[in-house]
């Protein structure tokens, strides 16, 4: 155990330092239909000060992968088959639950999508935030409550001192998401994992919450893992993007590059289906078909049944991630270099994004 | 909170009057003259009959009779039963019987229900859970009558562990068997409600949040899971307690216990309007009080109810 | 996150879709306990309809000298107090139980559904009237009210008993229906129907009822068994069916006074328990099939 547990909260992070590194993570589910693979050989890393977006549709395994590495995935039916998740060198997956709890919840914290169901309905928000200070910092209840009020203030909730005594249902959706953020940021974590943090919010509130995360991130070089299905959100805040499809990483690139020149046909399809003024009067291009359920993942490349470029060869093996340019990789045997046919004009992203 | 309670009690009074009046009207509407039937074949002088009639207000119209019975209840002059027993004395003897039975049954129900329900909920699909689900399905499906008779036959007649019926052996011996039969039945319901509630709560998002906060399993259990999982249990216990009076009628008949249920049943058979009104009033008051306590408790434990 | 955790461990049906009737039937027939219990119930129904199929002995042909004798050849259940063949009596006793439980269930479902629809769809006076009446009836201790009413009826037929059970029992189902109607009444398809001027009763029948009936249906199927027990309890207390009607409840009443003759109790108890457990398991299976989320 080499984690420095003493100077917590005050220790500064070196910009660019790798904080969390996931390698070859695979997760299975035991179901009545046998064992299904929800996450298959996923790798990614997040550095200090960086925002990594994991982009994918629901069912692509993006949430399952982070739930598995933080130890909150229900096991069984879930089961981690392989992989490591190193927080500053220490593998969270191999760790005992007790040691992992000193990292997850303290150095690595999470924000969930549905803040109404993600907060305990019978406890005041103040108590729920204060709990972090009590458990991880050993503060007294009174002192913890004082810090909780400070946190509410820091996420810009008006009248924070009074509102600590309120219950989750007494907040609006956007305010509740701020409460979630206050809870996640209470201990100044090194890594914030935000699982669809803005999906349930309307567009203006969504922008405010993202802005808030970005502000708090720059304060102390926090790494952010942002799980989303919204390309607009990616365009707004992500530095690096990992695209997931049916449990596999299909593309990895810097956000700007990915948005400008998608290489994998799936990413291309996602970007192409953003509505915009350029397309007025034309049909909106969409990806044909629906994402496969885990029971019916096609052999070989999971995307081939919906792919316009698919050839017979695509069915023979799962395509590996191949470098297609500096710092980017794509898992497609038909696209092995960074010269795709399309480029997406920035105006479209702005129109389709948040 | 006090205002809430007062409002509820005030709202309950007209319902209570309607309910007891309804019950009384039904007794009133029963065909036949209760006093003459009580006398059987013995010739009763008309003057005696008339005097008795006046004593029990039987010579008055329905509403007046009802009003007089209510007045008797409010002033505490309960009077006598048709066969000359002092009603106040009867209540003093009978209330403890019913209360002891209810307390014993509830003690059994709570301990077993909470223990098995929570264990099964946390070890879902384990051996205990499967066994409990099967056993409670059986208990809930088999009619109370059959269950009670089977218990009497097995533990009373065959094994002779407990008296079959009556209160000759005193407390707690005479009460154990009926209490266990009632307790078994309510236990099945309670255990199932608690199990389902725990299974749902354990899988809820806020428990995931609590785990993501890195707090220990014990704290997750006591601070996050149980306070939420116990909410439906309170409702269940309230419904269960409110049904005790009606249940007492059947139980006390089967096990021949001289409690309020038996008293009420006899009064109905003898068409003793006064006693029926008195006992239905008692039943209604306990129903309202239990409901009120449950609602207040719910308000304390669930902030969503308080503000909504 | 919620959607994902659903997608990961797949349930029987994709969320959002409902099972067709045929799929529902297949899902049910795949469960052995459902098939066994349905067969048991069909047997009881046949017993109630044509008891002669199951015994050739006349239940009222008695020989007092054989009173309370135990099983002999040709009389596997022994004899009752009056020396009648007990097997024949237990078989003939199925009719009141089946009739009361089935008729009261169907009647109770219809009554609760209609009142619940009206109360849920017409707030204000109609709702107030129905709901306040329900409050009063609900506050009556159920069994006490049943006893009082039935005790005042001289000749109690099965139909009187069913009627009184309906009279006392409707509020719980009505409340359930009312609350589901509340959640359906402002859904888009109802608003659309209202917008194009479909008359209210037709909206209730064609749009609201089919979408709001499932919880009540599930509760009703689970409650059938309890009605069997209720009929027996009322007859045992002496306010149910009267002699010479043959019923399991009256057999219990007699068995209670002859504790040394266990077969008087065991056979009707076995039949009644089999029937109520079958009803319960069938109801449980239907509810599970209607609600795939509960399968987990």
List keywords for this structure.
heterotrimer, A: 354 residues, alpha/beta, B: MetI-like fold, 2 domains
Describe this structure in words.
Chain A is 31% helix and 23% strand. Chain A is an alpha/beta fold. In chain A, the strands form 2 sheets. Chain A has an 8-stranded mixed sheet, with helices on both faces. The longest helix of chain A is centred in the middle third of the chain and has 17 residues, at 203-219. Chain A is globular, with a radius of gyration of 21 Å. Chain A starts with 17 loop residues before the first strand and ends with a helix. The model of chain A is unreliable at 1-10 and 350-354 (pLDDT under 50). The model of chain B has no long low-confidence stretch (mean pLDDT 83). Chain B is 79% helix and 0% strand. Chain B folds into 2 domains: 2-75, no CATH class; 88-269, MetI-like (MetI-like fold), CATH 1.10.3720. Chain B starts with a helix and ends with a helix. In chain C, α6 (125-139) packs across α8. In chain C, 41% of the residues are buried. Residues 1-18 and 292-296 of chain C have low confidence and may be disordered. Chain C is elongated. At the A-B interface, α2 and α4 of A face α9, α10 and α15 of B.
Number of DSSP strands of chain C? 0
> What proportion strand of chain C?
under 5%
Return Rg of chain C in Å.
Answer: 23 Å
Coarse morphology of chain A = globular
- Evaluate the radius of gyration of chain A: 21 Å
- State the low-pLDDT regions of chain C, or none: 1-18, 292-296
Number of strands of chain A: 12
Bin the strand percentage of chain A: 15-25%
User: Major beta sheet of chain C, specifics?
Assistant: none
Number of H- or I-type helical stretches of chain C = 13
What's the number of helices of chain A? 12
Which oligomerization state do the chains in this entry correspond to?
heterotrimer
Architecture blueprint of SSEs:
The complex is a heterotrimer of chains A (354), B (308) and C (296).
Chain A: E1 18-31, E2 34-47, E3 51-55, H1 62-70, E4 78-87, E5 90-91, H2 97-103, E6 108-111, H3 115-118, H4 125-137, H5 141-154, H6 160-163, H7 173-185, E7 191-195, H8 203-219, E8 223-228, H9 231-237, E9 240-245, E10 248-254, H10 255-260, H11 265-272, E11 322-325, E12 328-330, H12 346-352
Parallel strand pairs in A: 3-8, 3-9, 6-7, 7-8
Antiparallel strand pairs in A: 1-2, 1-4, 4-5, 9-10, 10-12, 11-12
Chain B: H1 2-29, H2 34-39, H3 46-55, H4 62-75, H5 87-122, H6 127-141, H7 144-158, H8 173-202, H9 205-212, H10 217-229, H11 231-242, H12 244-254, H13 260-270, H14 273-301, H15 303-307
Helix pairs in contact in B: 1-14, 4-14, 5-6, 5-8, 6-8, 7-8, 8-10, 8-11, 9-10, 11-14, 12-13, 13-14
Chain C: H1 2-7, H2 21-29, H3 32-49, H4 86-92, H5 94-121, H6 125-139, H7 142-151, H8 158-185, H9 188-195, H10 200-212, H11 214-237, H12 248-257, H13 262-290
């Amino acid at each position: 155990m080499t984690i420095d547990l003493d100077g917590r909260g005050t220790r500064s992070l070196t910009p660019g330092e790798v904080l969390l590194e996931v390698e070859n993570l695979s997760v299975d589910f035991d179901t009545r239909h046998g064992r299904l693979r929800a996450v298959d050989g996923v790798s990614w890393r997040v550095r200090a000060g960086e925002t990594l977006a994991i982009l994918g549709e629901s069912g692509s395994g993006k949430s399952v992968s982070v739930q598995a590495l933080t130890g909150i995935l229900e096991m069984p039916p879930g089961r981690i088959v392989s992989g490591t998740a190193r927080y500053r060198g220490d593998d969270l997956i191999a760790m005992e639950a007790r040691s992992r709890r000193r990292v997850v919840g303290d150095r690595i914290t999470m924000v969930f999508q549905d803040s109404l169901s993600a907060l305990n309905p019978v406890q005041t928000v103040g108590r729920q935030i204060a709990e972090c200070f009590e458990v991880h910092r050993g503060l007294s209840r009174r002192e913890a409550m004082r810090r909780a009020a400070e946190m509410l203030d820091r996420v810009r909730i008006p009248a924070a001192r009074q509102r600590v005594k309120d219950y989750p249902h007494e907040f609006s959706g956007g305010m509740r998401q701020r409460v979630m953020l206050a809870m996640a940021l209470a201990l100044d974590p090194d890594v914030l994992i935000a699982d669809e943090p803005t999906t349930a919010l309307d567009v203006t509130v969504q922008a405010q919450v993202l802005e808030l995360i970005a502000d708090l991130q720059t304060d102390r070089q926090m790494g952010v893992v942002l799980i989303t299905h919204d390309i607009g959100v990616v365009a707004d805040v992500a530095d690096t993007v990992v695209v997931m499809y049916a449990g596999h990483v299909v593309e990895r690139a810097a956000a700007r590059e990915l948005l400008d020149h998608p290489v994998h046909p799936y990413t291309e399809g996602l970007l192409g289906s953003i509505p915009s003024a350029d397309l007025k009067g034309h049909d909106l291009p969409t990806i044909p078909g629906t994402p496969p359920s885990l029971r019916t993942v096609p052999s070989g490349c999971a995307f081939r049944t919906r792919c316009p470029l698919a050839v017979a060869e695509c069915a023979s093996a799962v395509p590996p991630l191949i470098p297609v340019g500096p710092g980017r990789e794509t898992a497609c045997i038909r696209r092995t270099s960074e010269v795709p046919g399309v480029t997406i004009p920035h105006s479209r992203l702005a129109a389709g994004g948040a | 909170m006090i205002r809430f309670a007062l409002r509820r009690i005030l709202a309950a009074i007209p319902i209570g009057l309607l309910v007891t009046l309804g019950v009384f009207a039904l007794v009133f509407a029963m065909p036949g003259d209760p006093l003459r039937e009580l006398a059987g074949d013995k010739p009763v002088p008309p003057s005696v009959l008339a005097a008795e009639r006046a004593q029990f207000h039987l010579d008055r119209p329905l509403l007046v009779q009802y009003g007089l019975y209510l007045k008797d209840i409010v002033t505490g002059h309960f009077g006598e039963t048709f066969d000359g027993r002092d009603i106040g004395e009867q209540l003093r003897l009978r209330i403890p019987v019913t209360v002891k039975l209810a307390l014993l049954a509830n003690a059994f129900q709570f301990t077993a229900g909470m223990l098995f329900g929570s264990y099964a909920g946390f070890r879902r699909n384990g051996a205990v859970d499967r066994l409990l689900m099967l056993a409670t399905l059986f208990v809930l499906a088999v009619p109370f009558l059959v269950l009670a008779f089977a218990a009497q036959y097995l533990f009373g007649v065959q094994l002779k562990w407990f008296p079959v019926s009556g209160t000759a052996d005193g407390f707690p011996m005479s009460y154990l068997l009926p209490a266990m039969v009632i307790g078994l039945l309510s236990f099945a319901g309670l255990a199932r409600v608690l199990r389902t509630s725990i299974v749902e709560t354990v899988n809820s998002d806020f428990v995931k949040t609590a785990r993501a906060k890195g707090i220990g399993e014990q704290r997750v259990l006591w601070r996050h899971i149980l306070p939420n999982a116990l909410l439906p249990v309170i409702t269940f216990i309230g419904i269960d307690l409110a049904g005790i009076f009606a249940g007492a009628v059947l139980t006390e008949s089967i096990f021949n216990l001289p409690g309020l249920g038996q008293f009420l049943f006899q009064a109905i058979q003898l068409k003793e309007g006064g006693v029926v009104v008195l006992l239905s009033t008692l039943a209604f008051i306990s129903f309202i009080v239990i409901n009120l306590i449950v609602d207040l408790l719910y308000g304390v434990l669930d902030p969503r109810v308080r503000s909504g | 996150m919620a959607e994902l955790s659903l997608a990961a461990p797949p349930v029987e049906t994709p969320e959002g879709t409902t099972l067709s009737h045929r799929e529902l039937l297949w899902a049910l027939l795949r469960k052995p306990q459902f098939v066994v219990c349905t067969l048991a119930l069909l047997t009881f129904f046949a017993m109630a309809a044509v008891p002669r199929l199951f015994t050739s002995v006349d239940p009222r042909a008695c020989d007092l000298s054989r009173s309370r004798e135990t099983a002999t050849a040709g009389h596997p259940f022994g004899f009752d107090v009056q020396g009648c063949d007990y097997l024949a009596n237990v078989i003939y006793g199925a009719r009141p139980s089946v009739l009361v439980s089935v008729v009261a269930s169907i009647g109770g479902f219809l009554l609760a559904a209609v009142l619940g629809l009206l109360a849920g769809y017409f707030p204000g006076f109609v709702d107030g009237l129905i709901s306040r009446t329900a409050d009063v009836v609900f506050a009556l201790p159920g069994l006490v009210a049943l006893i009082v009413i039935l005790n005042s009826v001289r000749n109690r037929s099965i139909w009187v008993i069913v009627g009184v059970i309906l009279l006392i029992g409707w509020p719980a189902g009505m409340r359930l229906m009312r609350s589901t109607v509340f959640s359906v009444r402002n859904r888009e398809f109802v608003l659309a129907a209202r917008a194009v001027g479909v008359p209210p009763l037709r909206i209730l029948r064609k749009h609201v009822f089919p979408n709001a009936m499932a919880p009540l249906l599930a509760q009703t199927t689970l409650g059938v068994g309890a009605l069997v027990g209720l009929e027996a309890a009322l007859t045992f207390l002496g306010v149910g069916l009267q002699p010479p009607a043959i019923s399991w409840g009256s057999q219990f009443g007699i068995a209670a006074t002859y504790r040394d003759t266990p077969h008087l109790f065991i056979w009707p108890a076995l039949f009644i328990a089999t029937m109520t457990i079958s009803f319960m398991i069938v109801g449980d299976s239907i509810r599970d099939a209607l609600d795939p989320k509960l399968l987990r």
